[in-house]
């Protein structure tokens, strides 16, 4: 079997455009993948075309070789746009292979360890400003079945934080904790914005509310800082969404730089690369909680690969758009804060091109550091 062509699709959502790919073969089988990357859509499209000559003609069943050859020929090994394109195409190869042999994708990676994938919800508090508004939206999310909530409460703060803003953050955390009770996980996202002193100050203020973890508390550009923060932090630490591939994760993991590592499967190069990072973390007794602010195809792939990882902890789920089920055949079975891992062949999902075309790409900018 040989790959004959592939086609990309882009769909707008409030924070980022989703990027899907469909890979076609000479046997009539096709597979789907996703390459969503924050605010780099045009660069990702360029990356797809740059690697097209290395993709057409390949055997999609040689999944490990597919990644290795595309990665080797890309020259720039820490380019997230290229890695996201490779990841989408590799995921489509997994989908094709599973379909050919009539087996779910997780069987290609050693079989299931977990039948259910525990999730936490992101995007639940959009447009909230006051502690009372956050508390109300948190209650609504829990009433819909959420067992864990993540959000960034820091407004436009960068490097440092004012006393006024920190008081607002603490009051918001207190209101949310009171609204949802002690059994709901609260996860704090800092988006890698603070210096060491400020991040530690924030962690000490938030520790009484028992956050599940604080994510990217310091700038990711200096790996030594996250290691040092982890040593001194009174709350658990999560990091790694802006590290690309197993080589970049080696330093974080080998130095025990976090309680939870958060590789983004798309930016790391695909399902195989995520599995390898998970094994590296397992050796150090570190849990894995992948970054997934992406779309339905990425989520389907995560369900399969995460189910094979003994040290899997949490998967992020983005509350994005009401037309998510129009652009794909996603049918998530959610039970007690977990998604049941599907047993359908391949990834068990398809995209619907004519629906995708109804929501074309829009120019977006990062909303992370907007003024509250």
Task: Describe the model.
This protein folds into 2 domains: 3-102, Enolase-like, domain 1; 107-347, Enolase-like C-terminal domain (TIM Barrel). The strands form 3 sheets. A 6-stranded parallel sheet has the order 5-6-7-8-9-10, with helices on one face. A 4-stranded mixed sheet has the order 11-4-13-12, covered by helices on one side. Strands 1-2-3 form a 3-stranded antiparallel sheet. It is built from 13 helices and 13 strands. The model has no long low-confidence stretch (mean pLDDT 94). Helix 7 (223-232) links the parallel strand 7 (213-215) and strand 8. With 372 residues, it is of the alpha/beta class. Helix 1 (41-55) packs across helix 3, helix 2 runs antiparallel to helix 3 and helix 8 runs parallel beside helix 10. It has helices spanning 41-55, 63-74, 80-100, 131-143, 163-180, 196-206, 223-232, 245-254, 265-268, 271-283, 296-306, 324-327, 353-356; strands spanning 3-12, 17-25, 30-34, 116-122, 148-151, 185-189, 213-215, 237-239, 260-261, 287-288, 315-318, 334-335, 338-340.
Write out key terms for the chains shown.
alpha/beta; single chain; 13 helices; 372 residues; Enolase-like, domain 1; 2 domains; 39% helix; 16% strand; 6-stranded parallel beta sheet
């Amino acid at each position: 079997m040989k790959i004959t062509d592939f086609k990309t699709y882009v769909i707008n959502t409030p924070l980022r455009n989703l990027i899907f790919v469909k890979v076609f073969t000479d046997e009539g089988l096709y597979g789907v993948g996703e390459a969503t990357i924050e605010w780099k859509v045009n660069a990702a499209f360029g990356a797809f075309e740059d690697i097209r000559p290395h993709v057409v003609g390949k055997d999609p069943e040689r999944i490990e070789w597919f990644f290795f050859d595309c990665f080797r020929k890309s020259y720039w090994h820490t380019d997230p746009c290229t890695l996201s394109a490779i990841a989408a195409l590799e995921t489509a190869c997994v989908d094709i292979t599973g379909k050919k042999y009539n087996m779910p994708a997780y069987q290609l990676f050693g079989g299931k360890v977990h039948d259910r994938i525990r999730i936490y919800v992101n995007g639940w508090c959009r447009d909230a400003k006051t502690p009372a508004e956050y508390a109300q939206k948190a209650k609504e999310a829990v009433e819909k079945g959420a067992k864990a909530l993540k959000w960034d409460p820091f407004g436009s703060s960068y490097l440092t934080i004012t006393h006024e803003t920190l008081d607002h953050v603490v009051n918001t955390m207190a209101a949310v904790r009171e609204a949802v009770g002690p059994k709901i996980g609260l996860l704090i996202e800092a988006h890698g914005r603070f210096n060491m002193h400020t991040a530690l100050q924030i962690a000490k203020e938030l520790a009484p509310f028992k956050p599940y973890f604080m994510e990217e508390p310091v700038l990711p550009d200096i790996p030594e800082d996250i290691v040092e923060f982890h040593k001194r932090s009174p709350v658990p630490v999560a990091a790694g969404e802006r590290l690309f591939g197993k080589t970049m994760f080696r330093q974080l993991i080998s130095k025990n730089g976090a309680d939870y590592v958060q590789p983004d499967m798309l930016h790391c190069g695909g399902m195989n690369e995520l599995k390898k990072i998970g094994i590296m973390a397992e050796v150090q007794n570190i849990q894995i909680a992948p970054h997934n602010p992406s779309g339905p195809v990425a989520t389907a792939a995560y369900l399969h690969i995460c189910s094979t990882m003994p040290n899997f902890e949490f998967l992020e789920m983005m509350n994005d758009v009401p037309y998510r089920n129009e652009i794909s055949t996603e049918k998530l079975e959610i039970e007690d804060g977990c998604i049941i891992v599907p047993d359908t062949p391949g990834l068990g999902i398809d995209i619907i091109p004519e629906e995708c075309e109804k929501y074309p790409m829009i120019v977006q900018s990062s909303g992370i550091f907007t003024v509250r």
